[in-house]
Amino acid sequence: MSLAIVWFRRDLRLADNPALVAALADHEQILPVYIHSPGEESPWPPGAASNWWLHHALQDLADQLGDRLLIRQGPSLAVLRELAERSGARAVYWNRLYEPAAIARDSVVKQTLRGAGVAAHSHNAALLFEPWEVATRQGGPFRVFTPFWRRLLEIGLPQSALDRPALEGRLRGADPPAGLAGTTPQALQLLPVIRWDTGIAAAWRPTRAAAEARLDEFVAAELHRYGQGRDLPAEDQVSRLSPYLHFGQLGPREVVAACRHERHAAGDFLRELGWREFAHHLLFHYPHTSDAPMDARFETFPWRDDIDQLHAWQRGETGIPLVDAGMRQLWASGWMHNRVRMIVASFLTKNLLLPWRDGARWFWETLVDADLAGNSLGWQWTAGCGADAAPYFRVFNPVLQGQRFDPRGTYVRRWIPVLAELPDKWIHQPWVAPVAVLEAAGVTLGGNYPRPIVDLKVTRQRALDAWSRVK
Questions:
Q1: What is the bridge-based pairing of β-strands 29-36 and 70-73?
Q2: What are the two backbone dihedrals, phi and then psi, of residue 355, each rounded to the nearest 5 degrees?
Q3: 216 is in which domain, residue-wise?
Q4: Does the active-site annotation cover 272?
Q5: Which is the catalytic residue, given 52, 94, 335, 379?
Q6: Of 260, 285, 310, which residue is a domain's last?
Q7: Catalytic residue among 212, 235, 272, 365, which?
């Protein structure tokens, strides 16, 4: 019987999976394979939070496939060549990834397999459009989001997704005598030895069923409030679909299709999905931006080196409540509200004047939705050195941001309980509260809550002075 290998990567789903559908259309049986090869797809090893999610997503996919998912470890090309030879597979199918290292790896895999007489086919499951399909009127890549988004709307967002195919009788399982034995998600040792993941486990269900349920719930109950509520970190008015999209447990075409009957209400939300597309568009066309600024002037920017302040930021001990709340939410849950992501990034790069790469690497380690394209775009946007970047002189004031988007301090109180009894007036700036107010609230600055590690006004001016030296 004609057999094909379906190589799963970050497309850990059966519905809306073009590679899977194509393989089933062309062959009588498929051998579903996942190859654990950390470091092949990114300049940085996968972070601990990402590994946690991957473990559970792999187990969920294996369950959906009736334990027919063959999991291997090692260099992808070597594993695929061995499996093709031992199984007699005539072809390998996969869905494309767009990080520079993954593109280079996949190009070699495709050429080598074809040279060995094994057909190799790649498809698009991760994006609404391929990065090379969207171009300016002059034929080049976009560098500004708004015209990029207009172009996507002109082309027309896809309104449907592929159904889950029938797999009964089509799956080839492990066959130890034929050399097709695999391993298990547990054997990959993706979970932490010291169980720091209790909060993440309480906050997330990393399964396909949970992804579908969350999408349905969001569209039915929260989509209409998204435009007003997306900036309010204390409110649950964002989709929280990002990790499901990153690991491919949910596809972007499925998200658009779910919103097709809510076109008016979905505008702001789909625009955010457009930012995801834009991030991949940029990384594809400007692959150096995962580690280097798009704005070359920032190569000589006078970043500081202060390990103590970096650690204070990472631990959520800066003495600035909204910043600390965000960083503590990140550590506890593996996720942070997007408005707060911008605020903590601005604080690191502008008030602390520490390199954006330091922040990007910390997010990479701690976010369950850590994505190279989105991470690079977000940090360079806030630092002022990327495409369509916020001007460097735009410095988010975390006190004013808190007063505007968390006016009652609900978000801060949730993540910094020691400040819970402070009145709203002082919750975002306890260092200016009267001593009697602090005592009544049980807050001791420099004791159970730190004093600010910097003066916001002074460090804002320092950042502007630094920018004036390179602009």
A1: parallel
A2: -60, 140
A3: 127-161+206-285
A4: yes
A5: 379
A6: 285
A7: 272
> For each of the chain's 471 residues, which pLDDT tens digit applies?
799 999 999 999 999 999 999 999 999 999 999 999 998 998 888 999 999 999 999 999 999 999 999 999 999 999 999 999 999 999 999 999 999 999 999 999 999 999 999 999 999 999 999 999 999 999 999 999 999 999 999 999 999 999 999 999 999 987 877 888 899 999 999 999 888 899 999 999 999 999 999 999 999 999 999 998 999 999 988 999 999 999 999 999 999 999 998 877 899 999 999 999 999 999 999 999 999 999 999 999 999 999 999 999 999 999 999 999 999 999 999 999 999 999 999 999 999 999 999 999 999 999 999 999 999 999 999 999 998 766 777 899 999 999 999 999 999 999 999 999 999 999 999 999 999 999 999 999 999 999 999 999 999 999 999 998 887
Q: Which residue has the tokens 């625009």?
A: 271
Does residue 366 sit within a domain? yes
Contact (CB, 8 A) for 157 and 271: no
Which CATH number do you get for residue 219?
1.25.40.80
Q: Which of 262, 275, 365, 431 is catalytic?
A: 275
Residues 132 and 52 in one domain: no
Whose tokens are 């057999």? That residue is 3
Catalytic annotation present for 338: yes
Tell me how many domains the chain contains. Answer: 3
| Distance (Å, whole) CA 375 – CA 17 | 25
**Do 87 and 147 share a structural domain?**
no
**Dist CA 331 CA 203 (whole Å):** 12
| Same-domain pairing of 339 and 443 | yes
Q: Which of 285, 307, 332 is where one domain is finished?
A: 285
**Is residue 182 in a domain?**
no
Task: Verify that 236 and 341 share a domain, yes or no.
Answer: no
> Is 379 an active-site residue?
yes
CATH code of the domain containing 112 = 3.40.50.620
Distance separating the N- and C-terminal Cα atoms of the chain: 65
Whether the predicted model's global pTM rises above the 0.85 cut: yes
10 Å CB burial of residue 103 (0-12, 13-18, 19+) is middle
Q: Looking at the structure, tell me whether residues 458 and 335 fall in a common domain.
A: yes
For residue 201, tell me if it sits in a domain: no
Taking alpha carbons only, the member of 126, 124, 17, 110 closest to residue 65 is 17
The reply to whether 395 and 453 lie within a common domain is yes
> Of the residues 338, 365, 421, 431, which is catalytic?
338
Q: Is 133 a catalytic residue?
A: no
In a domain, 352, yes or no: yes
Shared-domain flag, residues 85 and 46: yes
Q: Contact at 8 Å (CB) between 230 and 238?
A: yes
**Out of 44, 235, 303, 317, which one is annotated catalytic?**
303
Judgement on whether residues 275 and 313 belong to the same structural domain of the protein:
no
**Does residue 431 carry a catalytic annotation?**
no
